[in-house]
Amino acid sequence: MFRRFVAIVAFVALAAALTLVAWPQLLGLQRAPVLALAVSFRGAAAAAALAVAVVLTAVGLVLHRLRRGLGVLALLLVAFAAAEAGVLVVRGVGAPDVPVAQADDVTVLSWNTLGDSVPAQVVARAAAENRATVVALPETTEGRARQVADLLARQGSTYTVFSRSQQAGIPARSTSVLVSTALGRYREVTADGDTVGVPSVVLDPAGGQNAPRIVAVHTTAPYDLDPATWRSDLRWVAARCSERNVLIAGDFNATIDHLDGLGPAPGRLRTCRDAALATGNAAVGTWPTSMPALIGTPIDHVLATPNWRFTGFRVLSDDDAAGSDHRPVLARLRPAG
């Protein structure tokens, strides 16, 4: 009798734990230690749960005395995998069509280059092929960004380069942005502060033009036992969405789950909406490139205020061997109304 009671308690505890991993938002724990990492890899978690369920079922067929207990465990894991898969399907596993840009469109390319590991020619080619208006480059030095701009200038596209570094000599502690001169003049804003562990860049129009504020983001990864710095960085990013006309792009080190509670609805940072979620691509992983996209985690984003609508979004996987562990993301935006 006691053994049965202990088994029931164990099964209930496991069910509760799996529920929290599948939806930590139930208790507001999506940015809590451990759970913040556990919820990041929904595709991998679903695949692992199914694999373990198959093994438990096979063992139960051989060891008849354990069949009931192993069967219950297998059912719990299958339910967990189904829940994870359901979330991924709802968020979108890929609607990658990006329409041809129109005159007023803005195209944003964001690529964490892993400390200048991606050659300038590869970044320039991606920007040119997709007619990028804004190129956000976390973990990219000013020197590499200028190389990219020079290559694009030879093709007839001119960009202004902005860059910030928090530690000279370490490329991973830099963030750079290229802004097409077609958007007009821009200036860097420092009064808004910065993300803590790695830099972000805030740009405002400087020529009186009706153009968006541009924020290139890189937040600290939530690897610490208590990722307080990461949570602070996400709050800083959310605060940048207090303006009426904002585009934000970069490596958030956060999925849609982690953004819950920082805005009025899922995929919102205050008034900013997520391009991947709006276009049915929010389950497509951007990191790491060593994993298939549907197994990886979607932590690179493009967001915008409601005066913009997303006409397309795509996670670019053609350059998985270019040197970075991140896939670039591309979003095309059009003025709303």
From TrEMBL:
<protein>
    <submittedName>
        <fullName>Endonuclease/exonuclease/phosphatase (EEP) superfamily protein YafD</fullName>
    </submittedName>
</protein>
<dbReference type="InterPro" id="IPR005135">
    <property type="entry name" value="Endo/exonuclease/phosphatase"/>
</dbReference>
<keyword id="KW-0812">Transmembrane</keyword>
<keyword id="KW-0472">Membrane</keyword>
<keyword id="KW-0540">Nuclease</keyword>
<dbReference type="GO" id="GO:0004527">
    <property type="term" value="F:exonuclease activity"/>
</dbReference>
<feature type="transmembrane region" description="Helical">
    <location>
        <begin position="44"/>
        <end position="63"/>
    </location>
</feature>
<feature type="domain" description="Endonuclease/exonuclease/phosphatase">
    <location>
        <begin position="109"/>
        <end position="326"/>
    </location>
</feature>
<dbReference type="Pfam" id="PF03372">
    <property type="entry name" value="Exo_endo_phos"/>
</dbReference>
<keyword id="KW-0255">Endonuclease</keyword>
<feature type="transmembrane region" description="Helical">
    <location>
        <begin position="70"/>
        <end position="90"/>
    </location>
</feature>
<dbReference type="GO" id="GO:0004519">
    <property type="term" value="F:endonuclease activity"/>
</dbReference>
<keyword id="KW-1133">Transmembrane helix</keyword>
<dbReference type="InterPro" id="IPR036691">
    <property type="entry name" value="Endo/exonu/phosph_ase_sf"/>
</dbReference>
<keyword id="KW-0269">Exonuclease</keyword>
<keyword id="KW-0378">Hydrolase</keyword>
